[in-house]
Known about the structure:
The chain is an alpha+beta fold. Among the domains are: 4-40 and 197-274 and 385-428, FAD/NAD(P)-binding domain, CATH 3.50.50.60; 99-186, no CATH class. Helices cover 30% and strands 25% of the residues. It is built from 13 helices and 21 strands. A 7-stranded mixed sheet has the order 8-7-17-18-19-16-20, with helices on both faces. Strands 11-2-1-15-21 form a 5-stranded parallel sheet. Strands 5, 6, 9 and 10 form a 4-stranded antiparallel sheet that branches. Helix 2 crosses helix 13 and helix 9 (254-261) runs antiparallel to helix 10. The longest helix has 16 residues, at 110-125. The radius of gyration is 22 Å and the shape is globular.
Amino acid sequence: xxxxxxxxxxxxxxxxxxxxxxxxxxxxxxxxxxxxxxxxxxxxxxxxxxxxxxxxxxxxxxxxxxxxxxxxxxxxxxxxxxxxxxxxxxxxxxxxxxxxxxxxxxxxxxxxxxxxxxxxxxxxxxxxxxxxxxxxxxxxxxxxxxxxxxxxxxxxxxxxxxxxxxxxxxxxxxxxxxxxxxxxxxxxxxxxxxxxxxxxxxxxxxxxxxxxxxxxxxxxxxxxxxxxxxxxxxxxxxxxxxxxxxxxxxxxxxxxxxxxxxxxxxxxxxxxxxxxxxxxxxxxxxxxxxxxxxxxxxxxxxxxxxxxxxxxxxxxxxxxxxxxxxxxxxxxxxxxxxxxxxxxxxxxxxxxxxxxxxxxxxxxxxxxxxxxxxxxxxxxxxxxxxxxxxxxxxxxxxxxxxxxxxxxxxxxxxxxxxxxxxxxxxxxxxxxxxxxxxxxxxxxxxxxx
Length: 449
């Protein structure tokens, strides 16, 4: 008889684990605390189509993601488009797509440009992340890319993403980040993928497949307590009732896990509670005209409330959205930042007020709507030697397992890397996940022994 498996958390990690477990013949139930499955993959209607709350694109080397699309019969929905990148520095937008643009980047001297190029390639191609956990990225950049390059490019970008923790981020994280970006570049520039119709296409396909495999998908099931006895989880009490299972897989953020285990394992919970998360806010603009011609604009000047201007319809044509031009104004924030609790109306005002300084052609008449989406657990704060703080997939309770965003380190979070983490967790739990190809991902290497 199949051993029942209870998965807590219905994001892409939990749903992929459910797919692999059901495929292996397990009896699976997924408990999601919110009103819908999907986690950070949630979408909303716009221009007769749908769009993600938080910007998503995919890389040409995302082998795990493409595998899942093939399994679900929707790989033909993945389309690759030529992307463009820019940097806003000293009040000016500079294209930043290759060597030619680098040479035209006026904030840096020619010597600084050479150091920037060589250090970036070294990070992506030659550096071993295992030997670079103890050195802060900012210190490494100052030493190898130069003070001017760090001040003009790396420091503002790291501060926008990591806030007060920017000086602690290890080089190891940058290795994963740079490897991801450079691996997607080919002759002539970078191509990025987007799932036509949004990630709702993936979620709908997963939902249909899981239900065919008799997986129970239960929403609004916020976990209230783990009932344990003799070193095992016996029951999970939720707002939708009590569930029993032979094994439990937690895919929720680490602070949630710490809260659930505080009574039974206070020392273990305290260790988990040391892992901090960043929040993120995306203000999505529906415009009648484009802001500029760049898909991804990094804001490297101080004094702006957003670190990225991601013009989605410079990657995917506006014709897919009845002519609406869609722009994300993105910002990561620490737990104590005012953005964590500010009303949506205030966030709209904060984000929109300086926009004309970057896009002089912007007028209020161009704006049809401004949507605000926020999460408190968008990314893990990965400080120096973070691998030593990544919790193991095996927990002190014999039948309780953990697989979440911490296991993506030293790589960057993405759908692809979450699928890799799910595959590794299923392997640890004794299920066959060898059919999932391993691409360029550095995820799932830590804590999955």
